[in-house]
Amino acid sequence: MTTSALFQGLILGLGMIIPIGAQNSYILSQGIKRNHHFLAATICMLCDVLLIGLGIFGGGKLIASSEWLMLLIGWGGVTFLVVYAVMSFKNVWRNQYQVATHIAAANSRKKIIGTTFAVTLLNPHVYLDTVMILGSVGGTFDGNEKWAFAIGTILASVLWFYTIAFGAAKLAPWLGAPKVQRVIDAIVGTIMLFIAYSVFNTLLIIPTNL
Fold first, then answer.
1. Which residues does 143 contact at the CB level (< 8 Å), separation at least 6?
2. Where along the chain do its domains lie?
3. pLDDT digits over 60-84, tens only?
4. Which of 49, 54, 119, 167 is the most buried (most CB within 10 A)?
């Protein structure tokens, strides 16, 4: 049964994480630049591990019960996502791309760390996927099965984030072409605005319960 729970965690975890979102888009862009991409993947993975554990072992109820906390996370996320989208569209408009190389102008390690934490922790969908959905499903298991489910979801996070980072770096000679970078920035900006819009609509509902 523990094997079944682990497999369920792995499949559900992949189902939550594979759709293109803020984290995936950011790691993809860093992988193309080969700019601390494994560091970004590691931070995303560790945040997922923390949030999944929080959700499965009871913390999800605390967040779900606090409407003010949900509003704070939500509005912070909308603001960040819109700013990130504007930056992406600004790059598209200026169209000053260069071929990505190992020595391309790289962001500092501190900036990568800060931005990765922001992309992860200011994105309300991360809490929905990890704490709420995975947490609620994991809460239906007991004992060793609960641990097996948690390990399965964590394994999904590890496999996916490192796969994106590695794959983007390997395909950098093609993905790093200026025209491709411009298309990717346009797609990333659109995704960020779509997520921000969906979160905004959700936030309009919450105040009615305050």
1. none
2. 1-96+103-203
3. 566 656 667 667 766 776 787 788 7
4. 119
